[in-house]
Amino acid sequence: MQIKSPQFKENARIALHNVELQEALGQFKHGFPVNRANAIKRLPEFEDLRDEARDLKNHIIQNLDIYLEQFEDNVVKNGGHVHWCSTAEDANKAILDICKQVDAKTITKGKSMVSEETGLNEYLEANGVRPVETDLGEYILQLRDDHPSHIIAPAIHLNVNDVSETFHEHHKRPKTGDPQALMKEAREVLRKEFVSADVGLTGANFLVAETGSTIIVTNEGNGDLTQTLPKTHIVITSIEKVVPTLEDMSLFLRLLARSATGQEFTVYNTLSTGPKRDTDQDGPENFHVVLVDNGRSEMVGTEFQDMLRCIRCSSCMNHCPVYGAVGGHSYGWVYPGPMGSVLTPKMIGIDKAAHLPNASTSCGKCEEVCPVRIPLPKMMRHWREKEFEKHLTPKTVRFGIAGWAFFAKRPALYRWLARSSAWFMSTVAGKKGRIKKLPLAGGWTDWRDMPAPQGKTFMDQWKAASSAKQQAEK
Fold first, then answer.
1. Above 80 in pLDDT, residue 461?
2. CA distance 64 to 58
């Protein structure tokens, strides 16, 4: 996927003027957040589960090597193979080598954001292997030569008419605007791909160390067909997905569905434990797990370690006012929203993604709804610090911060400036209670009025309240 994060401001400006996108985002705001809230009301112990999951994830990260080795041992005992891949390129090559071993020409894919991260589809196509996305949203995007704008609802930026036009163009069938008919049409086309595919590839929501199992959760069932019909099943996933036991996995599944879509449980929860056994009626003859690092191990022990707790529920972006205004494509790479604003700078470099940690209102809603309590706003601030250290911020911003620091280090001068600024904004610039134009604040006043300050400054009010309290105590 081409990196467009440096163009975030331009991307966002285009998104804000895209009428169809804004309509789709308007519907989105009243979907997942409401469903999540209702699901949580029905689970009184939800907050306790969040604490338990956070602590368990911290334990896993501290012992990541141990659980990954245990997972590998059990995969091998079950007859499977594990491929350790440091980079995205290593992962793509490992998958291509497996395809060559079985002379694969077609590979069906269950939904996998890690394969988006590695650019797997483009790599396979360039090397003579045809990938076919089987998740309905991903399939639509593949036909349109598009990319996901959301990690669990990849085509959320499209409407029914977009899908109708796309299917009519590629399937050469009569156009229809009936969602049920469109789903039936996709099912008929994809059924042939499922049956004829040489290799099936899925992601994994979790890896179970004690059994060597992988699990994929879907609402369409395409993951089951992808991993059971072809003779070879490949799982591509990232190293932080490992959990110690099946019981631990169930804890995360209870949080995942409720946080993601507001369901009690995802419709399909499919465990894979090695290749087909002699007593099995169906299943793959070959089972491979491709474990992708791609910079994650470097996050352990740093200020970004907490990001490895993420279970990819998308709750942070579902509640983010910035994502809700500009959509996922504005973020310019695989992972959008608050979680992407932390992950993307690590994976492609802060020099290419500096806008993303700044694309936040710092309202804290993302941390409030995260099922594993990831302090996303704090980590975005850490990236801003690194951006500043590398002199990536504009000179005007650096000059402004330096000016503020000068006054902040001189309390008496700071208080004078605060009083003077408040007076100017309330009596000169904002005579009618609002400010239409303000020097150095065009980014705000060019688009909306700024409320004029009312009353005394905060410090003056604090001083008056403290004096009143002291008088009362006497």
1. yes
2. 10
Nearest of 1, 260, 249 to residue 145 by alpha carbon: 1
pLDDT tier for residue 199 given thresholds of 50, 70 and 90: very high
Question: d(Cα 132, Cα 116) in Å, to the nearest integer?
Answer: 13
Q: Which among 151, 135, 226, 152 has a CA at the least distance from the CA of 186?
A: 135
- Which residue type is seen at 25? L
Looking at the DSSP bridge assignments, the partners of residue 235 are 202, 289
Query: Alpha-carbon distance 326 to 312, whole Å?
Result: 20
What pLDDT, on a 0 to 100 scale, did the predictor assign at position 472? 85
Q: Mapping DSSP to helix (H, G, I), strand (E, B) and coil, where does residue 1 land?
A: coil
In angstroms, the first-to-last Cα distance of the chain is: 69
- Structural domains present in the chain: 31-297 (3.40.50.10420), 410-473 (no CATH)
Tokens 């969602």 correspond to 179
Query: How far apart are the C-alpha atoms of 186 and 194, rounded to whole Å?
Result: 12
Strands 130-133 and 199-202 come out as: unpaired
Q: Residue with structure tokens 């076919």?
A: 132
Amino acid, single-letter form, for residue 469? K
The C-alpha torsion from 146 through 354 and 151 to 188, rounded to 10°, is 10
The gap from C-alpha 195 to its chain's centroid, in whole angstroms, comes to: 32
CA–CA separation, 340 and 347 (whole Å): 10
